[in-house]
Amino acid sequence: MGKLARGLVAFRKKYGYHHASVFLLTFFSYALLHVTRKSFSNIKSVLQQSWTPSNHTQFPGIYPPEIWDSEHFFTRGGDAELFLGYLDTTFLFCYAVGLYISGIVGDRFNLRYVLCTGMLLSALVVFFFGSLGPWLNIRSRYYYGVLWGLNGLVQSSGWPTVVAIMGNWFGKESHGVVFGVWSANASVGNIFGALLVSALLPYGFQSAMMAAAFLLFLGAVVNLTCLVEHPSLVGLVSPRDSDSNGPAAAQSSETQHNIQDDETKPLLDPDNGSRPEVRDQPAVRRSRTGEKKKKGKAINFFSALLIPGVIVYSLSYACLKLVNYSLFFWLPYYLSNRYSSWATPEESDRLSTLYDLGGIVGGAVGGFISDRLGKRSPVVVTMLLTAVAAIFVYQGFGSSALTNGILMTVAGIFIGGPANLESSAITADLGKQSAVKGNVEALATVTGIVDGTGSVGAAIGQTLVALIQEKTGEWKWVFYFLMAMLASSALFLVDLFVRDTWSLLKGARHRLQTWQRQRLERKQS
Questions:
Q1: Tens place of pLDDT for every residue, the chain, 525 residues?
Q2: Could you give the C-alpha distances from 159 to 26, 63, 115, 170, 414, in angstroms and in order?
Q3: Measured between alpha carbons, how far is residue 276 from residues 261, 266, 292, 462 in Å?
C-alpha cells in the first residue's frame, strides 16, 4: 500500500488540471465519434427489416402491402445484408484514405481546428444519413453510400489529432498506463452508443441517429472553446520539450538531455539496448507565460513510414483491426440472427457492450504490464494468441445469454486490449523514437499511417464477413476467418517478439546474477 500511495502522490505532482482536462476532452471526443458508428451498427437488423418487403407484416396498418412492395429497397434480406456490409467497407476505405491525409494535415495545422472541423461535419452527415433520409423516405443506394463514405472521410480527422494532442501532454514513460486507459474511449463510445440505441429504438432508429449526431455536434463546440492542444499555450513545458527557457534552465543540461533522450528512446529499440530508463520530470512553467512553442518542420509521409517498427505494426494492426471492427459492426446483428429465440435487437445491443467492456480492461491491464516490462510486443503477441482460443470457444459455446456474455467479455479482453495498445500507446512510441531525429511533429503522421493501414484491413474484412456468411450460410466460417486474422496479426510481430523476449530474459538473468553476487558479498562480510 505504501508503494501504491507513493505512486499516486508522484502521479498527482506530475499531472495537473490541464492534463486532466486534455485527457477527458480528447477521450470523450473520440468516444462521441464511436457513438455514431455504434449507433449505425446496432440499427442494422432494423434497417434490414425496413429495406425489405417482409417489413409490412411486422408493422400492419402503416403501409398497405401492395404500396410497400412497390417501394421496397431490396427484394430479399440477403441483398440488404450485403449492402450493409458494403456500407461498412465504404466507410472504412474512406476512413483509411482520410487517415493518411489527416495525419499529415494534423502535423501542419492547428490540431484543435482539424479535430473540431471533422466532428462538426460528421454530425451533419450522420443526421442526413440516419434521420433526414429515412424521414424523407429516400431510397437510393447512392445517397446512403456517398454519405456514409463521406462520414468515414471526415471522421478520420479524429484519431490522429487526439493521439497527437495526448502525446504533447503526456510523457513516454506512462504511455502504457495512461494511453491504455485513455484508449478505452472507443469502447466507452461503443457502450454508450449501444445503450443509446437500445433506449431510443422504440421511438424509431431515426431518433437514435439524431441523438448521436447532436451529441457529436455539442462535443465539437466544447472542444472549440476548452481544448488546449499544446502545453506551451498555457505556459507549460511539454514532457518531450527540452527547452530550457525560464525556470527550466535551473535544471542541469545533463538532466535536460536525459529527459529528451527518454522521450525519444523507443520501447521498440531494434538494438534492444540496456540503457536505464529516466523518469519523466514534472512539467514546469515558462517565465513568459503563454509563450508558444515554435512548430518544427513536419516529417513527410515516406520518412514516417520508414521509422523502425511502423511497417510491421501497421500490417499487424491491419489484421487486428479487421477482427475488432468485424465484431464491432456485426456482433449485434449476429446475436439477433443466430440466437433469435432470446436475443431481441434491444437485448443484442445491450449484450454486445460486454465485448467493449472487455476491451477497456484488456487495454488498461496490457498497458500496465507493458510499462512494467519496458516492452510492448511480448504482451501484444501473448494476448493475440490467447484471443485465437477465446474466439474458438466463443463461437462453439455461446448458446445461452449468460455463457455468451462471459465468453464475449473474455474475447474483448484479448482482442480489444492489444487493439487499444497498438492504436495508441505503441503508435505514440513509434512517433517519438530517436529515428525521427528530433522531429516532434511526426506523431500525427505516424498515427495516420498505422490506423490508416488498419482501416484498410478492416474495410476489406467487412465485405469478406458478409460474403462468407452469405455463401456458406454458417457463422462458424466467419469466426474461423477471424481466428486466422488474429494469428496473422501475431505473426507479423514474431521478429520483434523474439528479440524483445530475449532482451527481457537477458535482463532477468543479469538481475539474478547481481542479486546472487550481492548476497554472497553480504555473507562474506
A1: 555 555 555 556 667 788 899 999 999 999 999 999 989 988 887 887 777 765 444 545 445 555 555 556 777 767 787 888 788 889 988 988 898 888 778 777 888 999 999 999 999 999 999 999 888 888 888 999 999 999 999 999 998 899 888 888 886 655 567 877 888 898 899 889 988 988 898 888 899 999 999 999 999 999 999 999 888 888 887 665 544 344 333 343 343 444 344 444 544 554 444 443 433 444 444 433 444 444 555 567 777 777 788 888 899 999 999 999 898 878 888 888 888 888 887 788 788 889 988 988 998 888 888 888 888 889 999 999 999 999 999 998 888 889 999 999 999 999 988 988 887 767 666 765 655 554 555 667 787 888 888 888 888 887 888 889 888 888 999 999 999 999 999 999 998 899 889 989 998 888 888 888 888 888 887
A2: 9, 43, 9, 16, 22
A3: 11, 12, 32, 44
Which residues, in sequence order, are CB contacts of 255 under 8 Å at separation 6+? 281
Supply the DSSP symbol for 247. Answer: G
Q: How many CA atoms lie within 13 A of 174 on its CB side?
A: 22
Give one DSSP letter per residue of 280-323, joined into a string. Answer: PPPP-B-SSTTPPPPPPPPPPHHHHHTSTTHHHHHHHHHHHHHH
Helix (H) or strand (E) holding 188: helix 185-200
> Distance between CA atoms of 313 and 272, rounded to whole angstroms?
17
Q: What is the DSSP letter of 277?
A: P
* CA 169 to chain CA centroid, nearest Å: 19
Residue 254 CA from chain centroid, whole number: 37
Q: How many CA atoms lie within 13 Å of 279's alpha carbon, on the beta-carbon side?
A: 7
Q: How deeply is 146 buried, as exposed, middle or buried, from its count of CB atoms within 10 A (0-12, 13-18, 19+)?
A: middle
Structure-block grid coordinates of residue 435: 529515428
Sign of CA dihedral 351, 353, 358, 361: negative
